[in-house]
Each structure stands twice: as C-alpha cells, then as structure tokens.
C-alpha cells in the first residue's frame, strides 16, 4: 500500500492520532496530536480508515520514549509515548468535548485532575494464554494492539502490580512446562492489600503433576492460586485452602477506614491508589452529614456505601449482581456497620415500584457501568434530593446523563473533572457534582 503524509489534528477516544486524507478520517496508531507523520493504511472502511505511523516527520514536544519495550505490540497501553501531563490534558479535553457536544452543558467549575502512581498500578486484569507451536513455547500477556486475535509476546509488564508484572515471563514458562499447556485459556489476576490471586482457566481437568507445579509456583512467589474449570461459579482455591483477598478504603478524616473482602473475579476498581483518592474526593463533593439519607446506585461490593455509612444516618446500596450484594452485606457486618442496607435490582429496568426507589433520599451517588444511568434517571432523583455525585467510566454517557439532570431534573452541574484510573491508556474516568437549583 502507498504511504501518505498527514497532519494529526486530534486524538481519538482510544488514543490514536486523527488525520484526514482526501476528506476521509484516518485513525493512526503511534501518532500524537500536532505531529506530521508518514502513515500506512492497514484497513479501509466505508467512513474511516485505520493506519499506522511509519515515520514521525515533525515530533510533538510531548512525545517521550516509552518505558516498556513491548509498547506498540502489546495492546495493554496506548499512550506510553505521551508524557504524563499531556495524557491527563488529553483526557480532560475528551470530557470537555463530550459535555459540550452530547450533554450541551458545562460545569461551573473544573476540578483539578486526580492522579496517582503511573506504574505498577493495575491490581486487576486478564492475561491471555496461548501455546504457539512455531515458537515452541507458551505466551502469556495482553492481546496485541493491531492483531487482537494474538497474544503479545511479553516477559514483564510495568503497569501490572509489581509483585506480578516482572514475573509474567516466569508464569509463561510455568504454563509451558505443564501437561495442560494447550488447554489453559487465560489467567485472571486480582490483588488485595496483602494477597495476589491468580485464577487459572483450564479447559480440561489438570493432572496431579500440573496441580503440584501450580502450588509450588504459588508458594515460591507468594501467590494464591484458584482454578476455573468452567463458568464463574466453578472458581475454587487450589492453594492455600482458604485465601483471603481484601483492601482498605478511607472513610475520611477522623473516621476509621473500612475493609472490603472480595472474590478474585469480583469487580473492584483496577487502580488501588486512585480508588483511595477517588473516595476522598467523592466524600468531599457529596459532603455527607450525620443526618443524611444517601442512596448509592450500582454499589458493587460497597466501595462507596460502607465509607459513607461511617458518616451518615442511613445509606442504601443497590446492585444487580447477587454475589456482590451478598459480599457487601458481609463486609458491612464485618465492619460493624448497622445503618447500611443492600438490595439486588437490575438498574437497567424500571424499579420505581420498589420501596427504596420511593424513599426521600437527601443525596444520591451514581457509579454506573459504561451504559450510564439514563434508565434510573427516568424516575430518580426525587425533589428531596439536593445533591448528586456521579462517578463515570465513560464520558459520553456521563455527558448525556448530565444533560438529563440539568434540563429535566432542575440541577446545576456544579463541578466536574477527570481521574487517571488507567495511566498510559486512553480510558477516561471522571466525576461530577450536581446541586439542586
């Protein structure tokens, strides 16, 4: 294919440069905003093309040398070639653009971006496993950036928890030595404050020898090993017999932290340091008072619910997954909290007939998945609700829902800002405060 020279005029939502050639949008891997590049088209589509930068003609002043030698091959990160300050500025621009373009709203105040450690932050993730006959070994890693059907050939990862990231090559050697090398599909990892769990998904029963190898590896490196022979319900510990995963979350100045126990496949925030910072900002924005009644929607394990219970009269958490709700209740009991209640409900269906939906909540906390909370906003909040904090993992759905809250429910978008939950990726996590007019 022919090469083209083009100017990069923007960054896409996934961190690729954006150019236009003959009036058609082209997404360019490896290119940064403001650069002049030579690019090669890899795939053509009706409305856009995909390309890779083969030469940087004019470099961005924010371009840096990627720390990881696997950058460009591994799809785990897309922005290691952009300096940290420019990364967070790019995410802020995405949020600004989405508010203006989708929600048609603008916050009265922009919050300073929240950042934390940029390396070794990832405590949760899924590593793909593939036995490659041509290489005569097993690969363990994230999917390739430009060929997601393939597993990137990596030996370490600088963004994964430091107890695991440098040992990915050792993990690959372990799997390669097992009888079941071709029958292991993936390894999920989850790190608590004191324990790192590896969940081995195997398609056939493991031999006694393979089980012994996994146990020896766990003992040598301090991991807990779980096996997953089938669906999520089949996950069970191999070693030790009763592993414990838990992390602590701050409940604010002068108040005891809370500790949340979880299972290795439970949803928890990927970045432990950012989760703590996010919690403190959420508490600051929500401004919980001793008399407040708070509703926490999409509450999961109680990541926000339990710290709030330390500070308010009553808090109720709603979550769609039964297992998470059960563990949230157990965590409340374990932390001695009696003013907190949890209910199972599908928040993408109409729940206005439930007791919790009819109560007059003073404050509302929303932390939905990518789809956002528009279904909930058809019947909440009530007039008694004076303040809402919305934590978002997708700026487009936040912007849409902000428009609903401002234009249909009579709120002001008081403040908003980004949080760098996934450094070196284009993922945008954000938070917004809404106050009743």
From TrEMBL:
Per the UniProt entry, the Enzyme Commission number(s) are 2.1.1.190
Keyword 4Fe-4S belongs to the record: yes
**A single GO BP annotation from the record?**
rRNA base methylation
Give GO MF terms, alphabetically: 4 iron, 4 sulfur cluster binding; iron ion binding; RNA binding; rRNA (uridine-C5-)-methyltransferase activity
Q: Which PANTHER family match?
A: 23S RRNA (URACIL(1939)-C(5))-METHYLTRANSFERASE RLMD (PTHR11061:SF49), RNA M5U METHYLTRANSFERASE (PTHR11061)
Q: Which domain of life is it from?
A: Bacteria
Q: What HAMAP family does the annotation carry?
A: 23SrRNA_methyltr_RlmD
Q: Is Membrane among the key words of this record?
A: no
Q: Which PROSITE patterns match?
A: SAM_MT_RNA_M5U, TRAM, TRMA_1, TRMA_2
> Which spans are transmembrane here?
none
Native species: Dyella monticola
Q: Read off the Gene3D superfamilies from this record.
A: 2.40.50.1070, Nucleic acid-binding proteins, Vaccinia Virus protein VP39
Active-site residue list? 393, 393 (nucleophile)
Q: What class of enzyme is it?
A: transferase
Q: Where is the TRAM domain?
A: 1-55
Family assignment from sequence similarity? Belongs to the class I-like SAM-binding methyltransferase superfamily. RNA M5U methyltransferase family. RlmD subfamily.
Binding positions (S-adenosyl-L-methionine):
269, 298, 303, 319, 346, 367
Pfam assignment, any one: TRAM
Quick one: which residues bind [4Fe-4S] cluster?
68, 74, 77, 157
**Catalytic activity, as annotated:** uridine(1939) in 23S rRNA + S-adenosyl-L-methionine = 5-methyluridine(1939) in 23S rRNA + S-adenosyl-L-homocysteine + H(+)
The protein's UniProt keywords, in alphabetical order, are: 4Fe-4S, Iron, Iron-sulfur, Metal-binding, Methyltransferase, rRNA processing, S-adenosyl-L-methionine, Transferase
The UniProt function text for this chain reads: Catalyzes the formation of 5-methyl-uridine at position 1939 (m5U1939) in 23S rRNA.
Q: State the name under which the record lists this protein.
A: 23S rRNA (uracil(1939)-C(5))-methyltransferase RlmD
